[in-house]
Structure formats: structure tokens, C-alpha cells
Amino acid sequence: VSTASVVERGSTLDCLEETFAELSNSFTTLHQNFQGIKQVHESLNEFNKSFSGFLYGIKMNAHCIEFSEREADLFKENQSTPIATPVRRIKTPTPVSRIKTPAQPPPPKKKKINKALAIKTLIKKIVDSLPPKYRDQHQANRKNVEMILRLLFENPSEGKYIQDIVKCTELARGRCIEYLNVLINNEYAAQ
Fold first, then answer.
1. 113 — phi, psi (to 5°)?
2. What is the pTM of this model?
3. Digit-coded pLDDT (tens) for 88-109
4. CA pseudo-torsion sign 170, 173, 179, 180
């Protein structure tokens, strides 16, 4: 092999050295861009998981919060949106529910009525007028509603706090809210 041919090959490859260096730099930049895209993808996945948990929490919270009639109407109108109406914070606690006293004239003073029997009869009458799910003798719902009504009748003018009802009945908070909402919707209790 002659030295002239080696020099020619060397000079031919030397002119490509600059091009290969540019190509190598371009591949390095491309690799860095792909790593950046991968990090963005992982961040978006993490955000989606967290945000979906947040939306689920809002949805579950909406099922457990008692809305006033106006807020309930707004909530029904906006059910297509995933965010519920904000909850107002109350600084001083107020009773959640109290029993509505029936608009009946007071009994004549001449007769002595057994108060416990009158309350028992009134509770039976109230429960018998509720939807079938709550008045069936063989389901626990009836007994739970009767238990809540007895608590509300203990001091009908003052009412009871939801935490007191949960504590006394040993029912889940969601169940107590469900039963109270049934009584409120049927106008046997007031908020």
C-alpha cells in the first residue's frame, strides 16, 4: 500500500469527522429531548392520579354533606359538572335536626296522657308514612329511623347535633344523614 493512497483515505475521512460530530451532537440533543418528554409524561400521569383522587373525594363529600334547599336545587342543575357547590363553614355549632312539632291543638287538660305512649304512637305513625324502604318491619332501616326519632323526641325544641346522633345510635354518619334527610324531606324533621 502506498503512502499516497493512505493520505487520500485519511483526508476523505477527515472531511466527514465534522459531520459525524454534528450528527453525534444532534443525537445527544434528541436523547435529552426524549428524556424531557418522558419526565413530562410521568408528571402528567402522577397529576392525573392525584387529581382523580381529588375529584372522587369531592364526589363522596357531596354525598355526605347536607345541602339547604337552594343549594340542593343548584346542585341538581349542575350535576353535569364534577365540582360540588362549596360548603359554608359555621363558626358556632347549631343542631343538625330537630323534630317538627305537629300543628295539632294541645290535648284537653282534663285527660292525662302517657307521654311515652303518645311519642311511641307518633313515631309509629311517622315511620308508617315513610317510603317502603324505611317502614318495612323486617329491615334494620325502620328500627334505625325509630331510634333517631326517639332521640329527636327527647328534647324536640332544641334538636340534636349530628355527632350526638351518631354517638347515641352507633350508626355510620352517612346512614344517620340518610335517615335524617328522609325525615326532613317528608317534613317530619327540620334543620
1. -105, 135
2. 0.42
3. 444 445 555 556 655 666 555 5
4. positive
